[in-house]
Design brief:
61% helix, 70 residues, single chain
Length: 70
């Protein structure tokens, strides 16, 4: 997973790190670590929390917005 995808969707929804962390029930520092690609292997539970908080699919978080283009 690329942390820039989380950041892209977070900023698209005009959410702060704190807002998204609260929605996903994770710490701000851990979310920041993910966005900076310092942990490229978050578990399925975390991906599910983030995708639900951002209202996007897990695939969107993993592959980014361009994966839907044909």
């Amino acid at each position: 997973m690329n942390g820039k995808n989380i950041k892209f969707y977070r900023q698209k929804d005009q959410l702060s790190l704190s807002d998204l962390a609260q929605r996903a029930n994770i710490s701000v520092s851990y979310l920041s670590t993910l966005e900076k690609n310092k942990n490229a292997n978050p578990g399925l539970l975390l991906l599910t929390k983030l995708s639900e908080a951002l209202k996007v699919s897990i695939e969107d978080l993993i592959y980014g917005p361009s994966h839907r283009r044909i």
